[in-house]
Amino acid sequence: MVEPRKLFNTEVKVVNVGLRIFYEDLKKQGVKVVHVNYQPRPKLEKELESKLSELL
Amino acid sequence: MGYVKTVVEKNLVRDSLVLMKISEDLKKIPGVEEALVAMGTETNKKLAMDLGVFTPDVEKASEGDLFIAIRASSQEALEKAIAAAREMLSKPAGAGEAEFYDVDMALAALPDANLALISVPGEYAKEVAMKFLERGIHVHVFSDHVPKEDEVEMKKYAFERGLLVLGPGAGTSIINGVAIAFANAVRRGPIGIVASAGTGLQEVSSLIHNLGSGVSQGLGVGGGDVKNYVGGLMMKLGLKLLDRDEETKVLTIVAKPPEKETLESILQYVEKETRKPIVFGFMGKFTLSLPKGLVGRASAARSLHATALEAVRLVDEELYERGKEKLTIQYEKLLSMLQPYWEELSPKQKYIRGLFTGGTLTSEALTLLDELKIELYSNAPLPGQKQLPDPFRSVGNTIVDLGEEEFTAGRAHPMIDPTIRRLRLIEEAKDPEVAVVLMDFVLGYGSHVDPVGAHLPAIKEAQKIAEADGRKLVIIGYVLGVSGDPQGYESQIEKLRSVGAIVPPTNAVGVLSAAVVASRGQISRDIVDKFYKEYFEAYIKAR
Amino acid sequence: MSLKELIEEANKKAVENMMEAEPVLVDVKLAKDFIPGFKSDMILHAGPPITWERMSGPLKGAVIGALMYEGLADTPEQAEKIASRGDIVFKPNHEFGGACPMAGVVTPNMPIYIIHDKKFGNYAYSNFNEGIGKVLRYGAYDKEVMDRLKWMHDELFPALKAALHEAVKDKGGIAIKPLIAQGLHMGDEGHNRYIAITRLFLIELIPYLIQADLPKDVFMRVYTFAKNNNFFTLNIGMAAAKAMTMAAHNIKYSTIVSVLTRNGTDAGIWVSGLGNRWFTAPAPVPKGVFFPGFTQDDANPDIGDSSITETAGFGGFAMAAAPAIVSWVGGSVQFAVENTKKMYQITYTKHKYFTIPYLEFQGTPTGIDIRYVLKTGITPTINTGIAHKKPGVGQVGAGIVSFPFELFKDAFKAFVETYGA
């Protein structure tokens, strides 16, 4: 099992996924942060989805 | 009334934050009187109507269409604004800054990330969050509308592994002094908070700061956490982690009272898994009965005001004594401060209108007014209070939470976009029976850059409307913030005072002040005394 | 082997072939001399198959111009009548080994470039580039357009033919892959920016034009036309890309996209393992920068075979190599870089020969894999010229466009049906 990463009393390093304003606010605070411009993936039918994971 | 032009862009979708910024920028173009660039939701159409920029085209726009609506003093300004809007809309999002398109790519760039802040649409939140949890990375899920089963799945997975899932639906966290999403620049200190109420965490942490103490960690676990379907998993884990954290001396909970089963299991867990003093800040008319093992170690409080004070008392008695004077204004003193205001009211002015942006601040207001025996309407009433028939129109005493769905569909939250409240304020001013308008201004990261400034023209106009009618409108503006907030705490307060507004030290004092002014100081002494005892200090005190 | 393993093996082969293809410009011919049975009742066009009725303005305009070019009609009205009564058979270039920009209309008597892939033996073609603005490929057909086409046929074509004859004698023709690879290091991406590549090509061509012993005035007209047209080599690059993707086509089990194109009404793709079967969806309208006097409202849905460049691993996919492109297609430099990065997520490999200095000389994203498109929801994003939606007007701008997701979903469905799972 993966160990939880240390969060308290260490440098916070953030991956921001979604609203860009939060990324900017974290940068303003001098936090190390990267931004993910998240686009929800179009939905696939269940059957197609399972075929896809089978073939990837 | 100037020229109006609207343009509908079919199937063009943009983030409401982006649109708000574009609307604001357009208003700076000389000659532009009103500008609204928004998605075609019912809320936005209504707003267009209120702003006087509604056209049949806008009416036809669907929720997936974007409309540009401009009112200007000249045809030229109108065209210029439309062109500018189009140009701004055509700019690719994120120009000039590195962006990533998926989690793996981002983690390659920041391999030792320890927190993910997730604000994707709720139905996708779990999918994204799990990618982080699987790698041992804690998450703060800001997204609303996360399916319950997704929340349970994430939290069970995380709880077993000692990982935090803050949220979903959590507006606020403070990690190592860093404001995550909507949070204030609160000093670091000995008080560790776990909150299921976003603005509640903001209010309590800011009051702690303003009392001179500080916060080690502020963990927003989301409103669902204390319901039985989750069973308080993250509240428990948060408390446990804070109990083991050397920086944290006192544990504090800020939450709505949990459902019964969950409450019992939280109490048991606290008794077994933690050792530090703890303040149970379960908001509202709720009385906690402590299990034996916690008597002496635990306090309980019913308001944000009292929770903050009690947490400070447990870490530093001296700070508490000093701070109590500042926060809990003695009733006689309050009366003499407010008397000049109510004396100027006309006999017809009797109602309170609360226009809130913070959810927890709203519910605190509802609880306190109820305790003060004031009958009221709300769009989010407590049991026994009356539902506002039309959330867009106040009646009698009204407290509205402008952060509720009916106001936010398709547009930014009122903490970010002041438009809806500005319009509402003008409406309240037109009602000759209104005595007091009560508003919250929430500062901190995430919020509007100048919330008070953005309301000043509307406040002045409201005052003018009242004066023209031979009345005087009392404005109470509570500023939730600390001096390090990006908006400038002191200057926000100063701006409110410059227009004659009353600026209380806490939300609760603001609510009490509104009741005092509206009743001309005629609240019965029994009620006041009980109120002070139950809401301005803890009703169970540790040690 | 499991189907998954078969796919991996097939895809490896497909992208390997695509990268190892050696497209060489060997000749120019009239289309009828390259395509067997190409008669005057047939017109080739860009994108997936389409009927006259469903054609957008620019494609109709190009067809009208082409019928007049062939002498089958004297007036646009007459041309329209001929086209609309069903006498003409319309066929996609891709079905004949061609890729031509925008409307991509080719008729029997139009000159075309012939690319020979010396590695795999395939032949590919593209037509001649007329320049920007009012041109046939954007659906314009006025006198200026027709006169230019006539000159290209009467003078440019024989001049190039003679020069290429010399080139073939000298070294078997002009190799195009090295020109593209160099161009990527000189600020071109090989779809909407051909400034460096055109110059590199001219340096190769001029000695052969001289050896061909053309009259001085002919030489000067050919040289000036080529020098003044920043898109002169686009069509050659496209034919080269077509040859590369042909080498990756028809590989059993492969999920790599081998054709990616649009006709102004529909967008369409081929998938290597599914042969010449078209998957289509409505073509999106590009967003972009417009020439003065035109706006987004004038834009036609996306059109042209030029996305063959992205299919082959350059063009829009290599935008990070061409920051200056954003002044033509809009967006920011950062966008150009990010687009390349984004395309890595849906491509099978990084190109062995085409590299991007700014990205530490990483290879360009190469070989769109429909599985990755489905997994990420990211679709190929390219830069493109924008045609006016009315026939006869021509190019009005340039911009960015992403292909519809449904194309890839439908193709994947068909793949599953074909190969089971």
Q: Helices, strands, pairings?
A:
The complex is a heterotrimer of chains A (56), B (543) and C (421).
Chain A: E1 13-17, H1 20-28, E2 32-36, H2 46-55
Parallel strand pairs in A: 1-2
Chain B: E1 3-9, H1 16-27, E2 32-39, H2 42-50, H3 56-60, E3 66-72, H4 75-90, H5 103-109, E4 115-118, H6 122-133, E5 138-141, H7 148-161, E6 165-166, E7 172-175, E8 178-181, E9 188-195, H8 198-210, E10 215-220, H9 233-244, E11 250-255, H10 260-273, E12 278-282, E13 298-301, H11 304-315, H12 317-327, H13 331-343, E14 351-356, H14 359-371, E15 377-378, E16 386-387, E17 398-401, H15 405-408, H16 419-430, E18 434-442, H17 451-468, E19 474-480, H18 489-498, H19 507-518, H20 525-535
Parallel strand pairs in B: 4-5, 5-6, 9-10, 9-11, 11-12, 12-13, 14-17, 14-18, 15-16, 15-17, 18-19
Antiparallel strand pairs in B: 1-3, 2-3, 7-8, 7-10
Helix pairs in contact in B: 1-4, 6-7, 8-11, 9-10, 11-12, 13-19, 14-19, 16-17, 17-18
Chain C: H1 3-20, E1 23-30, H2 31-34, E2 42-45, H3 57-69, H4 76-84, E3 89-92, E4 111-117, E5 123-127, H5 143-171, E6 174-175, H6 177-184, H7 195-211, H8 216-228, H9 234-247, E7 257-263, E8 266-271, E9 279-282, E10 287-290, E11 303-304, H10 308-311, H11 326-329, H12 333-344, E12 347-356, E13 362-368, H13 370-376, E14 381-387, E15 395-402, H14 405-419
Parallel strand pairs in C: 2-3
Antiparallel strand pairs in C: 1-4, 1-6, 4-5, 7-8, 7-11, 8-9, 10-15, 12-13, 14-15
Task: Provide a quick synopsis of the model.
In chain B, 42% of the residues lie in helices and 18% in strands. By secondary structure, chain B is of the alpha/beta class. In chain B, helix 6 (122-133) packs parallel to helix 7 (148-161) and helix 9 (233-244) runs parallel beside helix 10.
Quaternary form: heterotrimer
**CATH class annotation of the largest domain in chain B:** Alpha Beta
Largest sheet of chain C: 4 strands, antiparallel
* Silhouette of chain C: globular
Provide structural commentary.
The complex is a heterotrimer of chains A (56), B (543) and C (421). By secondary structure, chain A is of the alpha+beta class. Helix content of chain A is 34%, strand content 18%. Chain A contains 2 helices and 2 strands; from the N terminus they run E-H-E-H. The longest helix of chain A has 10 residues, at 46-55. The mean pLDDT of chain A is 90. By secondary structure, chain B is α/β, with parallel strands linked by helices. Helix content of chain B is 42%, strand content 18%. In chain B, strands 8-7-10-9-11-12-13 form a 7-stranded mixed sheet, sandwiched between helices. In chain B, helix 1 (16-27) runs antiparallel to helix 4 (75-90), helix 11 (304-315) runs antiparallel to helix 12 (317-327) and helix 16 (419-430) runs parallel beside helix 17 (451-468). The longest helix of chain B has 18 residues, at 451-468. Chain C is an alpha+beta fold. Chain C has a domain at 254-419: v583 domain like (v583 fold, Alpha-Beta Complex). Chain C contains 14 helices and 15 strands. Chain C has a 4-stranded antiparallel sheet. In chain C, strands 9-8-7-11 form a 4-stranded antiparallel sheet. The longest helix of chain C has 29 residues, at 143-171. Chain C is globular, with a radius of gyration of 20 Å. Classes of the chains: A alpha+beta (56), B alpha/beta (543), C alpha+beta (421). Chains A and B meet through strand 1, helix 1 and strand 2 of A and helix 5, strand 4, helix 6 and strand 8 of B.
